[in-house]
Batch of 2 targets.
Target 1
Amino acid sequence: MMFAYYFKLGVRSLRRNPALTALMILTLAIGVAASVSTLTILHVMSGDPIPHKSDRLFVPLVDNGPIKGYTPGDKPDDDQASYRDALAVLKAPVGERRVVMYGIGPSIESPRKDLGAFSVSGIAASKDFFGMFETPFLYGQGWGDAEDKAGADVIVLARKLAEKLYGNANPVGQHLRVMGYDYQVVGVLDTWKPLPRYYHIIGGGGSFGGNDEVFLPFSSAIRHETGHSGSMNCTARGEPGYQGLLNGECTWIQPWIETRTAAERSDVVAWLDNYAAEQRKLGRLKRNAPNRVYNVPEWLEFRKVVGNDNKLSAWLAFGFLLLCLVNTIGLLLAKFSVRAPEVGIRRALGASRREIFSQFLIETGVVGLAGGLLGLVLALGALALMALQSNRISAVAHMDWVMLLFTFVMSVLAAMVAGLLPTWRACQVTPALQLKSQ
Amino acid sequence: MEIRPILAALLRNKTGAILVAVQVAISMAILANALHIVNVRQAVAARPSGIADEHNVFFVNIDSIGKGGPEQHLAEQKRFIDVLSSISGVQGVAQVGQIPMTNNGSTNSVAVDRKQTNETANAAFYTTPGNLLKTWGLKLVAGRDFQPGDFKDIDSDTTKDFTDVVIVTKALADKMFPGQDAIGKTMFFGTGEEAIQSRIVGVVERLQTQNAQVGDRGEYSTIVPIRFTNLGWANFTVHAEPGQLDRVMKDAEQALRKASATPIITEFKTIDETRKERYRADMAMAWMLVTVSVLLLLITASGIVGMASLWVTQRRKQIGVRRALGARKVDILRYFITENFMITSMGVVAGVLGAVGLNQFLVAQLEMARLPLGYLVAGSFIFWLLGVFAVYGPAWRAASISPALATRTA
């Protein structure tokens, strides 16, 4: 097959009618760019942040809302746990690891006098947080059972915060005033930014905008009566004071259970149902509502991490690409129909219909390639523009190799699909008619 | 005007006509919905928050205070108000528990009867030890502002004490007591036996909740004359004189730091910035849709121009013959414009169906709003006009073809 020859013909024909060609390539490029940039954002936002574990990490929730005003089937008031239920998860005899955590916004008084005091956002979590979410450590490590039991004042810093406070030195062992108390640094996390931030969706900047800078033991935060930074839902008026909060039914804590295999989900469900039944006997959980267990993809879907606006953008981009395709068909039709004499001569010289078909299809492929190149440049520009808008978008507006390849494939395929009708028309030309004088 | 010959010519040359009609249909379906969404988002982002002079108001959150207990916390909060009030260029200062449009704050269930099991509404909880209505310019439409005797300083760690009086927004008053005067009526925070009752003494026209949700839910707010002395933080809002906002903010930061014995953390923000952040996503979507709409029109126009140019080229001899037989330039022009109008009309009809269908999909899958008929009418006009403008160039070229072409063979 004369692929190389047809390819050269294709390139040469592009130059013959520059205005028409430019219009075709531009239209195709814009359509491809629009689709690819919105798809890239969607792709990053809906990616699985921890693929090898996402089906065996679970959020177990009971509904501890009041029975007054409740109709069976109503949505639960919150997707977090109360202190009592969170502790129950921590002690549960299921799974390899269990973590409870809540967002905090502590003040830091740096040893460096010039920095003064400032607030950071972080997490108060039990010891298995680091193992469960596989956080990379730059220096030191997390803490253990003893620190959890004692509510020890130890802290792990994120890399950026450690560099801000201590420069490039290893700060393990140093002391820091956190929330007015003296904490000891036991570890520094290396740069860790899973997208979406699936372990800390509620509050604290959300799944894409937030940054956790400190991690300290859950029991230590409770011991110091640290308030939450995030969302708390209270449906009954509890006793006043922090102890009242711990005894009451306000929900503000996020529980997680990790099992060894995905199949052990049934164990988690069974334990949760058992626990809820016991609590009902004690007079709690009056709603008798079904308990919920979400694995990571279900949790992301349930919390609508990929919002409606992003889906709208993706659909819009496809509609736009469709328009560009139809437009390209029209332009290609115009382009090929003026070449009828050329086709007539080639056919008269012996080219079969199939060879004419391949020639023109390859020509559309060349248009597709050119459109893909321009489309890629436009898409990168569009992503850069979108990234300027907000922190959230700039976190996800990055093209990886998959999307890059996808751009070219989509462009060439789109051009070829658009070219099918015009190409078929071109082959139908009868040589005899064309060879006569027009 | 002879429609039949034009129709006959079109039917013989269906492909090109169908392609143009399909482009018009797709464009219109997308454009109608896009413009509707832009309007909806714009309207949401333009809603007033209730603060009268937003451009000159800012707030500051001071953290890490009151370490010495409730009395010290109370003294510090009072001192901060004095410090802020004494800065030149300040029209009003108030301490307030939360700020609208910040997505930061708390709400309460409210009810009108202790026997209720369901809440009447969920309302934002603004607390202030005074001067809030004046600082924010909130308009009273009924009743009165708080009086000195109404205010309470409460340590919620040790007591369940609460306020006796409350000011509500008009939206909330209408929801709780439709058609009646809310002044003097009793409302309840919470439901059931443990609900706390309060007497409504004033109604303000508007104050959005801290989340500023779409719809009525974003307009239900309560203002109570309470200052909490056990929180460890405090919010203050300042109304500066026009043109002095930046300077007042700088002076305020210096003054506040000097006024506190222990290191404090301050975070300053203007209401303008807050508004921009709250509606950033909506405005971004609106801009993207506007860009897409412009591109849609351009691409459809280019499609019409392309196809019309092709037909003009293909029919040169035919046009020459017609001119030689006596057709005027304007007849040729009218021919092409009429032909284009028929094609565009087909596209518009399909586009109307497409727009409605697309809207059904958006309403069902993506929780968007229903498309009002006006957009379909507007869309039709836009594309008819677009068609006429796009085809004018090629049509004029056709009309300029000389009759002498009829006698030539090429």
Note: Chain B touches chain A through 62 residues (CB under 8 Å).
Target 2
Amino acid sequence: MKMMPSITADAPVLTRTEVAGLVALAARTVPPVWPLESAIAVNPLAGFEDVPFEQAVKLAAQRFGARRNLPISQWRKLLAAGKLDERTLRDAAIQRLGGLNAAFEMAGPDMSRLDLLMARLLHAPTQGEGSTPARLPRDAAFIAKWCAAFFDQGHAASPMPHRELGLYRATLAAIAYDAEYRALTGETGQKLLLSVSRDPLNAIAEGLATLAIEPGREEQALAQLVARLPGWAGHIRWRNEKADADVAVRSPATMADLLALWLLLARGDAVCLPLDPADTSGLATHVRLADSTPDAVGTAANAAIGEDDLGAIFQTAAEWSYRDKLVPSLQAAARTIASCETPDAQLLFCIDVRSEPFRRALEQQGHYETFGYAGFFGLPIALHRHGVERRTRLLPVLLSPQHDVAEAPVPGQEKAADAFVASQARARQASALFEAGKQGSATAFSTAEATGPLAGLLMAGRTLIPGIIDRLSAKRAPSREDVLAPSLDGHGGQPAFTLQEKVGFALALFKLTGLSAPARLVALIGHGASAVNNPYAAALDCGACGGHAGGSNARLLATILNDPDVRAGLAERGIAIPDTTWFVAGEHNTTTDEVSIFDRSTVPESHRNDLAALTASLVKAGALNRDRRAALLGRNAADLLTGAVHWGEVRPEWGLAGNAAFIVGPRALTRDIDLESRAFLHSYDWEADTDGTALTTILTAPMVVAQWINCQYLFSTLDNDRYGSGDKTTQNVVGGIGVLQGNGGDLRVGLPRQSLFADDGTPFHVPQRLLAIVLAPFERVERVVESNDILGRLFGKGWVTLVAIDPRTGKALRWRRDDEPDITPSAASSIHEREF
Amino acid sequence: MQLSGSNIPGRLVAGILWLGLGAAGVWAIGRPAEASASGLPLATGLLTLFVAAIIATFSLRHMRADGRPSRFFLTLVALVGAVLAFLFTNNLVVLGASWCASGWLLARLIGHADGWQEARAAAARARLAFLVGDAALLAGLGMVGWHVGSTRIDAVLASATTLPSPWVDAAALLLVIAAAARCALPPFSGWLLSSMTAPTPVSALMHAGLVNAGGFLLIRLAPVLEAAPAARMAAVTLGLLGAIYGVGVMMVRPDVKRALAGSTVSQMGFMIMSCGLGAYAAALWHLIAHGLFKAWLFLGAGSTIGIRTGKPTTALSGRTSLAIAAAITGVALSLLVSGDGDANLVPLLLGLATAAATLVASIGGRLPPRAKLALVAALVTLIAFHGGGMTLAAMAVGPDANPFVPAPVLLALLVAFLGLWVWQQQRVSSGRGLPLPLYVHLINAGALPASSHGEAK
């Protein structure tokens, strides 16, 4: 369909309500995009999760103009590095060809179809090395420019005028003066500015009618426009659905605003892509549809399998290789689980994949039992920090804060806390003065001259001796955690929790992890990372705490658990905590592998020795894990400590790269297996959870978060330009929100290249889907999955593979996908048996 | 310090630059006192080596995943070499050649990610701007060299006053154009404002050590400039325009890097204006201090994540800023009436205005008195730094030229800056921001011409 520029608007066919409905549906094509200050992993294909994985990848590739898989050359490097094995690749190829019979059909003289496909997989010359950043077409660049100006959150001294009118109306006002708008839309555009409806929903209705979008195709057309700028569209979703109201109050914007702008351009005949999805003739020139791979070996049968399909075969092989190695070892462990004697101390870590190697290292240091639990420790809180404008949401993004917690001085540190708060205020004032001086047309020059020498000194220090500077400043002033603590007193006077709530949160810990016999010392260890001058620092923090360090949650729950009233309440509910048990809180720094323990002064005399012993073990475990991680980063352990405070460092740690499995079961199941920092571990005791409520919670909350993380890493690796944020060195922070590449363009989503790929350009993160493994009776797993739609979808559509291991027999079954043929004799069961 | 892989070119380059800096430092301390003529190249050379050494070391980490470390680091060191060559040479041919080479190498680094169409476009745009500037430079140098009959810079400078008027006017004007192109003053600002495709360390080097070459050129060839009042007038005008335009761009940009680029345009404008006025010490000190300031801000550009919901900056109220501006104008008047107003008047009084504004703002905040005292103490320290730097710069370049413009014009210049500042503070503190047409014009500043269909895949 050719879009006719038209200013005489046809009468809208749709009502505002109908348009609002269409816009809401179209908006789902992109997920909410969290700002980098609280970077949350999301699945960029979340809008496609209701179709099978392979199909979703194809649809999204078309809609976003993305690759469907890694280039084959990259997969071959992973194969050579042993990340998957060739035999499994062969199995995956056979499956792709439709089974053994089809695979061994002859495709030519002395050559089966399988031989041919394997030759293509392993040897045929391939296409280019992967994605380079694409420059936005001018229509998208135009809208992206105004989005950046509008959504700026405190960077520009003179922000876009009239933002209080909303994105659509403020932009309408501005583009009347914009030469670029005139160049895009010509005279039509100028006339449109006078006539177009000022209400975004009406404007969309007008636009749809004028452009003669066929009834029934409107949602598709709108979704396509939403997908043109997934970053800014996702930002709008975050603002409206996930953010606190104070963020958007001065500059409201909805998806309808964005779409009204798009339709304005479309009516000015300035949109590059055809709006009617029925017409895809023009599509291929704009987006990369790599279906027409030159087929080097070339037969009709194989030609149907394009290069991206080859990538998918490799990916399947990587998933199978991993699964076929891991599941049997877990089965063996399941058969021999024995309860160990009472440990010296128990430690609860976050389920994060980075906890696993640290836990292993710690367990080698003595009689320690470790557990995995969501790193927000079950507390749905928001923390109001001193001197910080907005509250910090310390909980998974699936939940919304139920308790507002304030910061209070640590008892005995009131003076130091005052001094700390004052020094923070002074620093803020100094930086505000600097900003004001820097921006003033009379003051900018002397401000530069006066601060230049100091800047030179600081620059040299931060580049040459960042470690020394860091230690000096740590000595000079106490850290925030030493003088301030999250307080049970709450924000605004009332207590943050009732006794009943406290007991409830305490109880959840025992119920979900299966911890039943507390040792003398129990440590709750949150985690955070240290990265400086790094826009992606929060992406290394605890995802369960909304992209923040998790120490505050651990601290609060430890306080709750040491409360005699809470313990009495727990006893009534069947959880007996011995009087000899003391809970401490700590935080694992995943960049340096140092663990800090909070509130040491409140630890009773009787437990000082226990804590001292534990601290010594934590130090040893940290050194051990640091060495292991240094090898993976290709650096030495001391350099990791420097990198954690160096302002030039682009990869302080590998974060959650490599994540591949989510294991639900007692630690005894995994204790003797090196999971190589690739597994989320959630503790679970099937015997204590007879009704399956704990399993339901674990699979519907922490596992879903793990799946988001897994999909973010997966897709950011598959196409780092479209689903990831590209090279860190050319990123440009915008509006305090996120990053652009270079001069402008869309707000970038996903992870930067340096977080996923090694220095030589090969993927460090092997792109593979999450493998969830549960140690529980089959019938219970089945009941839980079938009564939760979200689980049925994730496992049934192939987004996550579920394997259940029966604790009594050690037998393992894999959940059958909806589109898989049922080959088990008992048709009643959804669980598909597979030999491991 | 062990870094991943074996980035031998990178470590070699960083080592060479630190060694070079050390050697230059030792030589600077030990050089004979009578060699004061070498103060300018020495000061700018030390700045270049210092910033480049820091950037190379920073890049060992920052560029660790760059696929072509040899290309990056060798271009970097070649660029520093070219800069040092034109800083220290006494030969017009070497000056011209190394100036051109430095531009070409810089454009290469702007387009370092050469698989990226936007980076190639940005590099091409920079090359085009440099081409114009380089042509002007070569023509200007050729004219004076040919007329004097020597390729020695000292010879040319010695006989600058003997050059015939239209001839020297034209040559000096060409030099001003060359400086303006390198300094990204309007109409040449586009290349710098669209150079965000450069990796962060390259931007730092560019803003700290390359763009200010225009200032160096005018100070180095000051006698030629002084012989041509028309060229000086052009420098003052272009500088003023750049100073104001750049502030505007900085004020509206939502992204960190282009806001910094706007700031650089403004600062370079101020520097070129100072050169035109003959305030060489102020211009040199500005060149050095701004270089350090901007390199620091660029390298730290990753630290700007954080959503703020309050007012963007703490601007002074319109009334306060008006009072400060009036007081400063009063001081200027009294200086001019008593005949003490020299070339340095504008930089000096803007410094005074900055000190006054910052002082008023730090006393006016809601901090406890002790904290205010600490801020004031810090401010005094910074002023001392500033004064010290200015003194050193004066030692390096010798006396300022006579102001060629009459006192009322100097006053008008000062009032232009102050008046604009009062207006700006008023608009920002009242939350109104800039008028919409101006805002739109500024937000479009430096946009690369858009591609109609995006990048062909």
Note: The longest helix of chain A spans residues 307-335.
